[in-house]
Design brief:
One of its GO terms (molecular function) is ATP binding. It is a single chain. By secondary structure, the chain is an alpha/beta fold. It folds into two domains: 22-236, Rossmann fold (3-Layer(aba) Sandwich), CATH 3.40.50; 244-309, Alpha-Beta Plaits. The chain contains eleven helices and 14 strands. The strands form three sheets. Strands 6-7-8-3-9-10 form a six-stranded mixed β-sheet, with helices on both faces. Helix 3 crosses helix 4 (127-140) and helix 4 (127-140) crosses helix 5 (156-167). The longest helix has 16 residues, at 186-201.
C-alpha cells in the first residue's frame, strides 16, 4: 500500500494556517436525562498545548472520549487530524497517543513487560524496534529503575507514568492526556511539564484536561473552559487573560502624594507594596503622565493581568455541576 505525501506548494506561496489537530461542531452527548456535553464547537490548533478546564463532571473526559472514537456522540461532528470520526480513525489513530481515565495494564506483569505488549500492537514499530522503544519511553518518564517491578505494586503516580510512556512509544502528531498529573508528587509534576514542553518543541499538539489551574497556566498555550457540559470560553491563553481585564499598577515611592493627585482628578485607586492599583477601566498611561506632571516620584507602569484562577472563577461561577 502506498501513502500519499504532503501536498507541494509553489515557492513563495503562503500555504496558510495549518488545519486544527482536532475539531468538533455541535457536539452533544446525553446519558439518559443527563447532558454531559451540550452543543460544543471547538478547534484545537495544530502545534498548541491545549488545556481543557472544568470542574469534575463538566464534560472534559466525555468530550475527549468522543474525539478518540471511544464514545459515540448523540449529535454533532468530530474531526481528528483532518479526518472524520469514526470513519477516519484507522488512518488517524497511529498518529495519536492517549492516556484517558487512567492507564489499564496487566497487574501481574512488570512495567517493562506491559509496555512491550503495548509496543507489539504499534503499527509503526517492527519487532526489532519494540525493545529499544520501550526502554527509551521508560527512561523518558522516569520509570527505568522500576521497570522490572510488577504493575500491581506500582503507586498511582507510577501507573500514570507508565500510561504516559505507552502514549509516547513512537512519535505522535497529537498526544491526549486526561489528568496526566493525577497521583504525581511535585517532582513528577515537573517532569510531566518538561515532557509536554519537549513535545511542543518537536511540533506535537498536546491536548490535556485538568482541574489544576496552576499546571494549565504553566504549560498551556490555549485553553477551553467547560462547565455543566457547555463551552464557556476558548482561545489563546494570553488573549483570554487580556480580555478579562485586570487594571494597572503604578510603582511609586510617594503613594500618599500620588493618591491625592488621583483623588483630585476623581480617580479611585488602592495601594499595595508601594504601588497604586487602578481598575481595568482607568486610563493608566494618562494617569501616569499626570503624576509625572504633578512632580510625584513614579517609577513604572504595568498592566495587571488576572491569573487563570480568577478567569476560571468568573466563567464558572454559575451554580453546581450536573
Amino acid at each position: 500500500m502506498t501513502t500519499a505525501g504532503p501536498a507541494l506548494t509553489a515557492p513563495g506561496t503562503d500555504p496558510g494556517p495549518a488545519p486544527p489537530a482536532a475539531r468538533v461542531r455541535g457536539l452533544r452527548r446525553t446519558f439518559g436525562r443527563v447532558t454531559a456535553v451540550d452543543g460544543v464547537d471547538l478547534d484545537v490548533p495544530a502545534g498548541s498545548v491545549f488545556g481543557m478546564l472544568g470542574p469534575n463532571g463538566s464534560g472534559k473526559t466525555t468530550l475527549i472520549r468522543m474525539l478518540l472514537g471511544l464514545t459515540t456522540p448523540s449529535a454533532g461532528t468530530v474531526e481528528l487530524l483532518g479526518r472524520p470520526v469514526p470513519a477516519g480513525l484507522a488512518a488517524s489513530l497511529p498518529d495519536v497517543g492517549a492516556l484517558v481515565e487512567g492507564p489499564g495494564f496487566h497487574p501481574f506483569l512488570s512495567g517493562r513487560e506491559n509496555l512491550r505488549r503495548a509496543g507489539a500492537t504499534e503499527p509503526r514499530l517492527v519487532a526489532r524496534e519494540v525493545a529499544p522503544a520501550v526502554e527509551a519511553a521508560l527512561e523518558r518518564v522516569g520509570l527505568a529503575d522500576a521497570a522490572g517491578r510488577r504493575y500491581r505494586g506500582y503507586s498511582l503516580g507510577m501507573k500514570q507514568r507508565l500510561g504516559l510512556a505507552a502514549a509516547l512509544l513512537v512519535p505522535r502528531r497529537l498526544v491526549v492526556l486526561d489528568e496526566p498529573t493525577n497521583g504525581l508528587d511535585p517532582a513528577g509534576t515537573r517532569e510531566v511539564r518538561a515532557i509536554v514542553a519537549g513535545l511542543r518543541a518537536a511540533g506535537t499538539t498536546v491536548l490535556l484536561s485538568s482541574h489544576l489551574l496552576s499546571e494549565v497556566e504553566a504549560v498551556c498555550t490555549h485553553v477551553a473552559v467547560l462547565a455543566r457540559g457547555a463551552l464557556l470560553a476558548s482561545g489563546g491563553l494570553a488573549e483570554l487573560l487580556d480580555t478579562a481585564g485586570g487594571g494597572w499598577e503604578i510603582a511609586t515611592t510617594e503613594p500618599d502624594a500620588a493618591l491625592r493627585v488621583l483623588r483630585d482628578a476623581g480617580v479611585a485607586a488602592g495601594t499595595a507594596d508601594r504601588a497604586l492599583l487602578l481598575d481595568a477601566g482607568a486610563d493608566g498611561p494618562r494617569l501616569f503622565a499626570d503624576l509625572v506632571g504633578a512632580g510625584v516620584a513614579v517609577h513604572g507602569l504595568t498592566r495587571r493581568r488576572p491569573g487563570l484562577e480568577e478567569l476560571f472563577t468568573r466563567l464558572t461561577d454559575g451554580g453546581p455541576d450536573r
